[in-house]
Amino acid sequence: MARFARPLTALLATAAAASALTTAAPAASAATASPAKPTIVLVHGAFADASSWNGVAERLQRRGYTVIASANPLRGLADDAAATAALLKSIKGPVVLAGHSYGGAVITNAARGNDEVKALVYIAAFIPEKGESAADLAGRHPGSTLGETLREVPLPGGGTDLYVRQEKFRKQFAHDVPARDAKLMAATQRPVTAAALNEPSGAPAWKDIASWALVPTGDKNIPPAALRFMAKRAEARATVEIEGASHAVLVSRPDAVADLIERAAAGRR
């Protein structure tokens, strides 16, 4: 063992010297460094999972962002928001928070009171006011055909899980996604409880945090008129419409979704 002592000592001495040089670097160099990019947190909605953000996450990572696609429990709005809020509290520095579909209701509640959340991005998403539920908002304007595609699964402890029937999934949820991919999405979808979709929202974070919105005009889950109404009410800094895109616009049009999130990160209208 003695023959390794001298090289190891030399190595440690070199490392210590390098550390000292780093510590002694002029403060001016740190002052001129580019500000750190915010962490992007992505929250999926009902009938999907975190992998639905893969295309968006890949593009944002290539642009230098740290990205976290969280696992939304889809059990109840207050509980889902609490889980997301706990994740946000574990992140150091500024955050841009994006939600898809029911995930919009989650981020509306999860960001409340968190000063590090600098922007909310709603991708084909609910933007509820206090006391409103996802089911309320989806039914406020005509056009949603989701209800007729759902399969109910009673839960052992009470309550009901909801799935989109696999044979109807692509037409309902993802008509502009390649058939092979939509078939996999249908098979791997995560159910949401009926209670979660009917649970009233708390006070909305969008009243204190700037928001951006994306409206796919071919959405059959949330009517485009409802998406426009919510974005306007929240005074979204920018509302982007994607002509003919489905509810699964984050899968079919990841470039457009990543572009909007980056606009929000930069505070651009």
Automatic annotation (TrEMBL):
Residues 1-30 form the signal peptide. Keywords: Hydrolase, Signal. Residues 40-259 form the AB hydrolase-1 domain. It comes from the Bacteria. SUPFAM superfamilies: alpha/beta-Hydrolases (SSF53474). Gene3D superfamilies: alpha/beta hydrolase (3.40.50.1820). The keyword Amino-acid biosynthesis does not apply. One of its GO terms (molecular function) is hydrolase activity. This is Alpha/beta hydrolase. It comes from Planomonospora sphaerica.
